Amino acid sequence: MFNIFKKNNSNSTEPENVEVSGNIAELLEFIVKRLVDYPDDVLIKEVQGERTKVLEIKVNDADMGKVIGKKGRIIKSLRIVVRAAALHDGQSVSIEIVNEKEPE
Amino acid sequence: MLYYDSVARTEEEAVNLALKKMRLDRKDAIVRSVTEVPEGVKVRVEAVNSRGREVNDLLEELFDRLGVKADLFYIESFDKILVNVSGPYLGLIIGKGGSTLEALEILVSAMHNRGYMSYKPVVINPGGYRENKKKALNSLVRRACETAATGEKVNLPLMKQRDRKQVHQIIKDFPGFRSRSFGDGLDRRVCIYCATESDNAGDSDEEETLFIVPDQYSVDEDVLSDSRLAP
After folding, report:
1. Which of B68, B104, B110 sits opposite A74 (nearest CB)?
2. What is the pLDDT of residues A30-69, one digit of tens each?
3. Nearest to A75 by CA among A31, A38, A42
4. Cα(first)–Cα(last) distance of chain A, in Å?
5. Longest dimension (CA), chain B
6. Is B68 within 8 Å of B92 (Cβ atoms)?
7. Of the candidates B115, B28, B51, the residue with the CA atom closest to the CA atom of residue A35
8. Closest CB to A77 among B62, B87, B107
9. Which of A44, B14, B100, B166 could be stapled to B43 by a disulfide with Cβ–Cβ 3.0 to 4.6 Å?
10. In this structure, are residues B65 and A20 in contact, taking their beta carbons and an 8 Å threshold?
11. CA of A27, closest CA in chain B: separation in Å?
12. Which of the given ranges, A27-36, B12-21, B22-31, has the highest pLDDT on average?
């Protein structure tokens, strides 16, 4: 039993093949730009909060639906993936879409 | 190389049929051969711009940015693109209960299918995760059936739609047992019970309504035979 405990412990320490990724904002930009029709209009802004970093996405109004998806499917997945990557870095981030126009 | 043989009356129809089957656009395929057959024209359509290659490149870059080093191997079929991922540390892309994996699939499918007329889902299989999941579900169902044999109804834990569907398929290997899904939205779970019990309320993922159909069929057949006799 002691052996199992030891093994688990060594697994949970920093795995060598995973490098801390450069920038979470860049990852987000990479994904969002491939989702929309107007990639040049994509703007990602980092706002440092007290504990969490807020990533604000601004896209062309016509692309709002593309980023959100049916019943928020895409934005939900975006949050999960980016949060997983950020958590790995020891950061905590949240994502928001900041277009002025409200989707109908 | 991905190709499809189709037969139709005209060459155009046959090509369109093949493209539809392969879920490809015209620009991504070439017609390799055209032969006359008694039924019409037989064509062989081959995919040139591999969508699997595209997904592979996309995932490679994404994993690079996520900080995951992994080897990819893609298999493109008519209805999906399967990417096998192998590497020493894949927990990051699977996540708790496969949540990150599911999100990744949704995102990569959306990123890849933009600009294509036909939708082709991307399925990611990191380190044999899918096979392991199937094994785990299999043993879960077997244990549930052992309990259900006593006449008890067994409710399985909350599962995703894909897993529920798999349970309904697995249960077919256990004669005498049935499965049904109960609940709405996220609170939907599978219930396993002995087939002898009466089927109560509750809707199912599976095609149980099909059992009503035979009545209609017999009526149709009567009408058909009448009309045949009439002239």
Report:
1. B110
2. 999 999 998 898 888 888 888 888 888 989 888 888 899 8
3. A31
4. 58
5. 76
6. yes
7. B115
8. B107
9. B14
10. no
11. 6
12. A27-36
Q: Please list the residues that pair with B86 across neighbouring strands.
A: B71
Nearest-CA distance from A35 to chain B in Å?
Answer: 5
pLDDT in tens, B154-176: 888 888 888 888 888 888 888 88
Give me the DSSP letters along B173-223.
GSTTEEEEEESSTTS-EEEEEETTS---S---SS-GGGGGHHHHHHHHHHH
Instruction: Evaluate whether A64 touches A98 at the Cβ level (below 8 Å).
Output: no
Here the tokens at position B122 are 């991307």
Q: Are B194 and B147 in contact (CB under 8 A)?
A: no
Q: Do A17 and B61 touch (CB under 8 A)?
A: no
Helix (H) or strand (E) holding B97: none
Tokens coding B80: 């999906």
Q: What is the pLDDT of residues B102-158, one digit of tens each?
A: 999 999 999 998 878 788 889 999 988 889 999 999 999 988 888 888 888 888 888
3-state secondary structure B28-47: HEEEEEEEEECCEEEEEEEE
**Of B81, B82, B90, B88, residue with least CA distance to B63:** B90
Calculate how close chain A gets to B57, using CA atoms only, in Å: 13
What residues are paired with B5 via a beta bridge? Answer: B44
Amino acid found at A81: V
Sheet of B189-194, strand order: B154-155, B189-194, B177-182
Distance (Å, rounded) from C-alpha A89 to C-alpha A52? 13
Q: Return the structure tokens found at A45.
A: 């802004």
Report the distance separating Cα A78 and Cα A67, nearest Å: 9
pLDDT attached to residue A63: 87
| Contact call for B92 and A17, based on CB within 8 A | no
Angle at which helix B129-148 crosses helix B161-170, to 10 degrees, equals 60
Record the pTM. 0.70
**B59-81 pLDDT tens trace:** 999 988 888 888 899 888 878 88
